[in-house]
């Protein structure tokens, strides 16, 4: 079977990207296999673990549930766009200081999701964070230190 | 020793690999690529048990974009029985090969039967659909007790029962029957004032690592094979892949990638031999990544079990005898760690008379693998539940009971081996005095449960090299894949010796050609044993650098002392070098300094844990909420307390999942009906409270800093603690896991189940 590739233009982390993809390729596959941005991880590829969380036009989505051609004209933010040339984002720094990762495979998804939360709601408590992050599975930490890291980052962002 | 002041040990430096892991730069199993890369997929059995009548791969091979197809018959035929492979324990090579890909029979739904390599994953998937397999479906057996019956369908031709170390010659799905015994239980039970016996079942659960297995393999034209993989043990991958492909071990180089969780489940090889053959066939590098469904259906979960436990006590609470019967479902091939469960289950207690029968049984499910203290959580669930019942009947405080019977140094285990220095009693004291144990439950429909757990911990072999840089830092090379902070934990142990900061030691995890043999990251051994290797390699550096200082001072090395990072001349204390100062002068005193060590540390410190959990049961829905959780553990000495706490928190939560939700749910055809993360439901952040940890530090005299393994113990007590808590809340003994809402409602008499 031959497949006709579609041309797609999308803004990824502030840069315009043009790529060809098959209609059946997901955004997750495009990011990793076409654009080489492997920071967005794969845990299940069926929308149940959150490891591939990215921000799409302001909303967080599982990139494995979005088809590549669907993002034509959109803005996508991935984990690669979270740190700036000034250094790590406060959430990334808090994950390091609170030891909020063990194996680290779920970490990019958690950081993208937590950043979206704190951008929308600077004042968060434990219950709100637990609710917001319920779509991101972590098997190593029991979530305790992740929740603490997001609380700590929230404080630091508010202080800044 | 726990009160010893360390400079680095016991502090919480940021891990060296942290920045790469929070920015997405770290390369995990699926993150590698190569020029001309091809992708492979596996065709799997739709049946739980069937004979393969024929496989026709011709249409798949002709599919555009397909570069090769293999079946199980393309894997080399290996001799029967177990063989010694040098670096790892003896293995049954043919069974390992047949699990990687079936030859004549499929033994579980998801068993691999063929594989395709193509120019894209999607094309490979299309080609799988074009492979024609004819099966003769056979009766299957899923339940461990059914499988033990004489009339059960037999999985493996030639499988006979080995009982008490002797082959009985009897064809059966019971692979082994092992007995562990000390004292005389009939005499012990005769002295008992109270005897309680109960039976228990647990379902298979999965380690649930978030990263699926993934590997890339290139079989070069010179027959040199490179494997990029995120396995827990690169050397094990080398050994086992060489064995299964019948190639020299030295022809394989394994490059370890970052690993997205393992918990024991990423020790076997599943993909590597298959990708290697497809690479040889196609001449290209080949990458394979399992889907989540494949991970659940075809990698090794933990065994489901049927267990009985019987304990006799005096009226004052003294345990006089214990008996247990453990039947573990190993899956399609033997090897369920039932023996380890048997050896751990009574160890928190000093009991003179013990008898345990342990059965390793085949069923038509994937072959089990290790999962964090393999075998021990199930077995502890049985014993700790019966003890809970006994305490209820005696009206005795559950911690007082455990302190009265507590195992301590010198207590004989069921193996006959006395315990070394352990912190069981100190831990129970901490539990008894804790806020949680003494706090009121604080609401209706609530219950509290406690339970203890034990795990041996492992030592095994590790290697390390340390290179002194001219700026006074040190590059560290080990062979231990870093699953949860072991780069920093091992670098800290070298830094402590050298008077450096943790970040002055730069850890690298090397490939199998670049470091000496190092056993798997598992068995709670890495911070202990690889840390020992870095400690010893650091001491090797100190020795060599003393010689360099002596050369500069024109004296003997014995005239040079080293303390807190400074070399001082004993005979003239005005002469000194800082580590950094001397590091800058190595080239003029003989060249680079490289410290090295290979260790097989004997002083493994066994570990005890104790968990307290409060639950609230919704009587209308049967849902159980965990409202408070505290995990106590004797960790010897916490090298990096944050990652020790993290191990305990993560293990506790895996126990919560196992106890409340997680199970392999099979339909009547022997097909797993919940093979996705939607239906195989692991705890989310919303399901949990904070997990409080209490680190008890009774130093392990067998480690330079007193460390014990910590990673596995935290999964052991949780099943029983949850079971006891729910029992306490609803007034009915819960003896089946998971305690899902239907089971709770059934226990409450609300529904028939």
Describe the structure.
The complex is a heterodimer of chains A (160) and B (753). Chain A has 160 residues and is α+β, with helices and mostly antiparallel strands. Chain A folds into two domains: 6-80, Beta-grasp domain (Ubiquitin-like (UB roll)), CATH 3.10.20; 90-159, DNA polymerase, domain 1. Chain A is built from five helices and five strands, in the order ββαβββαααα. Chain A has helices at residues 27-34, 90-97, 107-120, 126-132, 144-159, and strands at residues 6-12, 15-21, 53-56, 59-62, 75-77. Chain A is globular, with a radius of gyration of 16 Å. Chain B folds into three domains: 18-26 and 459-599, Aldehyde oxidase/xanthine dehydrogenase, molybdopterin binding domain (Aldehyde Oxidoreductase, domain 4, 2-Layer Sandwich); 32-138 and 211-260 and 266-298, Alpha-Beta Complex (Aldehyde Oxidoreductase, domain 3); 305-373 and 385-453 and 605-747, Aldehyde oxidase/xanthine dehydrogenase, molybdopterin binding domain (Aldehyde Oxidoreductase, domain 4, 2-Layer Sandwich), CATH 3.30.365.10. In chain B, α7 crosses α8 (272-282), α10 runs parallel beside α11 (376-394) and α15 (486-498) packs parallel to α16. Chain B starts with 17 loop residues before the first helix and ends in a 6-residue tail after the last helix. Chains A and B meet through α1, α2, α3, α4 and α5 of A and α1, α4 and α18 of B.
